[in-house]
């Protein structure tokens, strides 16, 4: 397997006055999101405020078409959202997955963390919770997402994420049924490697408090109900104010199997050299994942040595 694992690692050797702080970093060149998070910190907001504001900006701007409403329609043509936010001081987490009708997914994730004793809500129940907490119900479909879906249907539903079914998913649309076990094969087609971007963000304030978060509309043409790594703690993002923070973007179906963001903080947080971090993470995933596939992932992380 080839794994393209791009890691941006910031090792902060903090003096008592925390001269290197505050800090905001995020995946992809989503500069307006970074600016929104930075503005929140500069105006006296918490690191949670910063992460929420930054990710929310991307949700509004539909960053890269893979965050927020109107992007990545699933097999039924619907856009759904996933998000996570984590408090590195208390280790509290709020997350939502397969969220429908609500544009502010990161806001709902924070509401789950602060207004319930739960960690994650999913699907229609998450949407109903959001509505009862005052979030506005809106259509997440746009002309662009309708066009993406229409073109996909005209192209015989290519690409898709089906395997071991008939009719042949590399040639035809469904509905699909499972093939007998003796005739099963590996997935014949793979989707666009750029169809699964995410905003992952980490914020650390002047006093060393850390928060991390993610927001995404998932894989384009995903099977309805699919959830990737973004809202999964330790997979999409992780924050620990005593160690650091990490967030990622990439093929969540592969990444979530190894909890790489938790590894970034718990194990790699003790490794000072960025190249050693990258070597450790790549080696770990490659040892566990055998199929000869090429996956693409991006990681942002920083470690704090107190």
Automatic annotation (TrEMBL):
- Active-site residues, as the UniProt record annotates them: 198
Provide the binding site for substrate: 226-229, 249-252
What does UniProt give as the signal peptide span?
Answer: 1-19
Keyword check for Signal: yes
Q: Where is this site: Cleavage?
A: 197-198
* An annotated Gene Ontology molecular function: N4-(beta-N-acetylglucosaminyl)-L-asparaginase activity
Family, according to the entry, reads as follows: Belongs to the Ntn-hydrolase family.
Q: What is this protein called?
A: Aspartylglucosaminidase
């Amino acid at each position: 397997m080839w794994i393209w694992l791009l890691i941006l690692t910031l090792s902060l050797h903090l003096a008592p006055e925390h001269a290197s702080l505050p800090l905001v970093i995020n995946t992809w060149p989503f500069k307006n999101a970074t600016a929104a998070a930075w503005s929140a910190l500069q105006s006296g907001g918490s690191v949670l405020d910063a992460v929420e504001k930054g990710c929310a900006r991307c949700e509004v701007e539909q960053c890269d078409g893979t965050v927020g409403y109107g992007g990545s329609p699933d097999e039924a043509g619907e856009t759904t959202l996933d998000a996570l936010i984590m408090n590195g001081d208390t280790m509290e987490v709020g997350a939502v997955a397969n969220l429908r009708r609500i544009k502010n997914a990161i806001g709902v994730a924070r509401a789950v963390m602060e207004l319930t004793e739960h960690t994650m809500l999913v699907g229609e129940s998450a949407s109903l919770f959001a509505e009862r907490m005052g979030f506005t119900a809106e259509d997440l479909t746009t002309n662009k997402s309708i066009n993406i879906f229409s073109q996909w249907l005209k192209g015989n539903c290519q690409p898709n994420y089906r395997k071991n079914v008939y009719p042949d998913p590399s040639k035809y649309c469904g509905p699909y049924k499972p093939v007998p076990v003796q005739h099963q094969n590996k997935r014949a087609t793979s989707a666009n490697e750029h169809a699964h971007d995410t905003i992952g963000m980490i914020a650390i304030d002047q006093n060393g408090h850390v928060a991390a978060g993610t927001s995404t509309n998932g894989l384009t043409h995903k099977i309805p109900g699919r959830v990737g790594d973004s809202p999964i703690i330790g997979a999409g993002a992780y924050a620990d104010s005593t160690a650091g923070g990490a967030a990622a973007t990439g093929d969540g179906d592969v990444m979530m199997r190894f909890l790489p963001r938790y590894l970034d903080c718990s194990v790699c947080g003790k490794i000072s050299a960025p190249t050693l971090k990258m070597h450790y993470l790549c080696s770990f995933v490659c040892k566990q994942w055998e199929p000869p596939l090429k996956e693409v992932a991006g990681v942002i992380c920083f470690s704090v040595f107190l």
